[in-house]
């Protein structure tokens, strides 16, 4: 498989902007994908936060299964503050606001004792397409930040006023290099890496292989797949969907895109790719 690396120039600019604005915030909210929280963890962003209080938000919880709850528990056991939500569901607003308030409870109390009503500020950061802007819109109660279903929608900083605090929306930022290609591939599955720089042949085959290992029943239910190599499974997807070329050859490209799209749209059910070893290995 081709090595995945993606750190375009605008991300360097974004990192510099975040460094410049860090002194203006009281804490940092890191948004992760609940299906792959270890893969969507950016150690460089954690280092950037320094001694600021940090909250990890495992977003897209509606697309993850119960394994994500176990990973959330491990993250909390490491000493980090963390919460799992679905930012497109209004019911998650209470969960995230409660977690934010707990993060600054001592600071707020000290301010109140001095007779001050402080507006706390938080930087919202993470890799692309984890739902940072959607989270901000949930907290703001309206569409204030630009959102999209692909990597790289937010390019500049945006301050958003919410009840009792302000949020700084920042562009999605990858680590300069992926040390763990297994985790990088999972980011490609969920759309955090620009598809234009990927070899979708490799990504789709890797996805089918991992789904066969962890969720074979989903493949059977969706595509009538009962084992086989990743290529054989892809051919079954093509046959099931009628993705054929002249001469009876399989239209592999349409099959690959269908599998990837089915995963991203939740048509393959709730899945979680990362495991305990992945979470423990990245260092929350």
Shape, principal axes of CA atoms? elongated
DSSP summary, beta strand count: 6
**What gap, in angstroms, lies between the N and C termini?**
28 Å
Binned, the helix content reads: 40-55%
| Pattern of helices and strands | HEHEHEHHEHEEHHHHHH
* Beta-strand content: 5-15%
- Gyration radius (Cα, Å) is 20 Å
Task: State mean pLDDT (0 to 100 scale).
Answer: 91
Strand adjacency order, main sheet? 3-2-1-4-6-5
Name the features.
12% strand; alpha/beta; six-stranded mixed β-sheet; 12 helices
Explain the overall architecture:
The chain has 284 residues and is an alpha/beta fold. The chain has helices spanning 9-21, 43-49, 67-77, 92-103, 105-113, 132-140, 181-190, 200-214, 216-223, 230-241, 252-264, 276-282, and strands at 27-33, 54-59, 81-84, 120-125, 158-162, 165-169. The protein is built from twelve helices and six strands. It has a six-stranded mixed β-sheet with strand order 3-2-1-4-6-5, sandwiched between helices. The chain is elongated, with a radius of gyration of 20 Å. Residues 146-155 have low confidence and may be disordered.
Short description:
The chain has 284 residues and is an alpha/beta fold. 44% of the residues lie in helices and 12% in strands. It is built from 12 helices and 6 strands.
Q: How would you summarize the topology of this molecule?
A:
Blueprint: H1 9-21, E1 27-33, H2 43-49, E2 54-59, H3 67-77, E3 81-84, H4 92-103, H5 105-113, E4 120-125, H6 132-140, E5 158-162, E6 165-169, H7 181-190, H8 200-214, H9 216-223, H10 230-241, H11 252-264, H12 276-282
Parallel strand pairs: 1-2, 1-4, 2-3, 4-6
Antiparallel strand pairs: 5-6
